Amino acid sequence: MYRITAKEELDVRDFFMEVEAPHVARAWKPGQFVVLLIHKKGERIPMSVYYADRETGRLGMFIRRHGKTTFDLWDNFDVGDSLYAVAGPLGMPIEVKHYGNVVFVSDAVCGQAENYATLRAMKEAGNYTISIQTFEDRAHSYPEKFLAKPVADEYYLTTEDGSRGIKGHYLDVLRELIEKDKVDIVFGGGKLGSLKKLADLTREYGIPTIVTVRQIMVDGTGMCGSCRILYDGEIKFACRDGPMFDAHKVDWDDVIRRDGRFVREQEIAKKHYLESKGVV
Ligand SMILES: Cc1cc2nc3c(=O)[nH]c(=O)nc-3n(C[C@H](O)[C@H](O)[C@H](O)COP(=O)(O)OP(=O)(O)OC[C@H]3O[C@@H](n4cnc5c(N)ncnc54)[C@H](O)[C@@H]3O)c2cc1C
Ligand code: FES
Hints:
Strand order of the largest sheet: 12-11-10-9-13-14-17
Strand content: 25-35%
Shape: globular
CATH architecture of the largest domain: 3-Layer(aba) Sandwich
CATH topology of the largest domain: Rossmann fold
Structural class: alpha/beta
Radius of gyration: 18 Å
Bound molecules: flavin-adenine dinucleotide, FE2/S2 (inorganic) cluster
Order of helices and strands: EEHEEEEHEEEHEEEHEHEEEHEHH
């Protein structure tokens, strides 16, 4: 069993959770993800890793209350309780080496976790690290201690309405940094629509760009085909060949279309769960 060792609200939707999973924490490398099963018969939910502590064997994650399973996790699991399973690490690690000036951009929960985890490793590899984190507004932004600031040599926080930090999106800040000639490689995670725009921006300047392609996953091991993407004219599986890919080779329109496949079913499952709790 996988004991929960910390749980804390990050904003009105997202929360931090730390879980004991020594075999995963010791093997995890940046770029890889895990799959949580909160009950024996539950859904398998893929999660990015905020940190993996080899000594304590603990994993930190940022989790959004999105549908049935993540609401259940927030509502019914506390510190001291255990998850049924933490599978992983899954997927391919990214190459951690000296690139020069490394930027990580993010504007949604999985990207915020990866921003910290990736830049921490890149800083240890001797890179100059620049973090740009975008949130919708102050109410949907994280407490200071959960930002990627400590692992960034240069740090920018933006909100789309300007209620905290710089007004705007990471794309605006990144364009300015590129024009100042400060960017050797960009890593990114978060909203798929923004990653498509990111790919267009960095392609214009010829800057290598590696991003997380979040697709609906079922088994998470390359067996079911659910997470397939079109990549450089070939079929790849986000769970096995990614989830981080060269953003310039991804067919973004196909990725975005496939991401919406089960919205109706997910809404029905969430509604049933909330009704069972007397919430709606
Ligand atoms: C590589 C990767 C990393 C991710 N990292 C994070 C993270 O750090 N924090 C976070 O909050 N979310 C992350 N997600 C998205 C997260 O897995 C989904 O939000 C979550 O599975 C949906 O939970 P739910 O409560 O709506 O599930 P339910 O509606 O109960 O079940 C949904 C089922 O569909 C699948 N599913 C639904 N939406 C998604 C999705 N967007 N991506 C993949 N599978 C999905 C799940 O595997 C699950 O089996 C990540 C997804 C991927 C693929
Ligand atoms: S989740 Fe089944 S192939 Fe990737």
